[in-house]
Write the structure tokens for this entry.
Amino acid sequence: MSNKERIKNLLTQESEKLLNCVHCGLCLDQCPTYKLTGNESNSPRGRLAMWRAQNEGRADSKELVQHYTSECLGCLACETACPANVPYGEILMEQRQQQYEETGKLHPQVKIVAGLTKKPGLMKAATLPVRIMRNFGFSPDPLIPTGKTSLFKSSFKHAINNNQQLAETKEKVRFFTGCHTENFYPEINFATLDVLKANGIEVEVPASQQCCGALHEHTGLHDKDELDKKNCDVFDQQIDVPILTNAAGCGLSLKHALKSPVKDVLSYLGERDLTQPKRKQTAKIFIDMPCHLYHGQGVQKIPQNVLEAIGEDIHYAPSCQDCCGAAGTYNIEKAENSTKIIDGKVEFLNEYKGQEIIITTANAICMQQWHAAVKRNFPHENFKVKHIISLLAENYT
Ligand code: SF4
Ligand code: SF4
């Protein structure tokens, strides 16, 4: 059944269950947009009431419903808090699809990116200037950190090289590269492959894999069905071999689409005896949990053995379970709200001025959001932002 059909079915046949909000309000204090505005319409309960009114033909203003639907981050913190198991994320997706059908409105930048995700070769070429600039120490955008990266090499080739160096293979996995990480930060994917190699794991990177469709899901574009079908054809041939990701959003989107088991690489490593790393990080490290890992996939902690392999001075950042404000395309479409949300989250770093600090997360999009906020708020401090898997890879190499 297609995504669209599935949601339509849910809404028509199971509308009572879907719209089973008992108005208890337990989700309000977990909702970043409610905390930011104090406005009931900008809360999960308010949005659910508005959508129900719209479905029943009672909504006062279509424009207001569209506005508050677009204000939602899709972070799913309300689902975690909800005692009535209201499937908020599914309802949001349906509302966004309906809204896109009615208005056809899409942020121009999002439109370009959504188009590129369906043409991997073109995306690789179009993002080459970004990789070149990063390599030479220039940020093409405040969100994008500089750093040594590969200009042309792909994860597909990197995995083949790594597999050839494996003396003994303990297990085999498949790796989903994610078009954003693969094109903007291929070094994070290489770090993932290197950690797996250090632990004797052979990795296949299927060359014909497609974008996971998370961006399309966020914005209401129907292209997700087409991408899901192609990824099912690529991955669901061998459902006994796990698929690993290092991007929480891709992981959640793939879990919606595939029969094969999809796991975040950190959870996968957490279930194994890890090879002892050569060194450990010495800086104080704060972890922020991506909302699509914490709320979407239910992974609320980084496994203890992974933390021990990284360093000794590791802590969860305050409000680490709250969305950083990046949420799919939110930091493009709602830049002002997005900035306020992340600036609130970085405030705790005031206590650590003058110290060497690493802020780490498990999704390149969240990493960008933190990077921009740290640079904006603490330009002269020794605060670095890195993906968790990159820290682990540094320890092994
Ligand atoms: S998904 Fe996040 S932003 Fe949207 S209503 Fe739920 S908690 Fe609020
Ligand atoms: S927690 Fe669930 S039932 Fe309670 S107001 Fe929020 S969505 Fe409704």
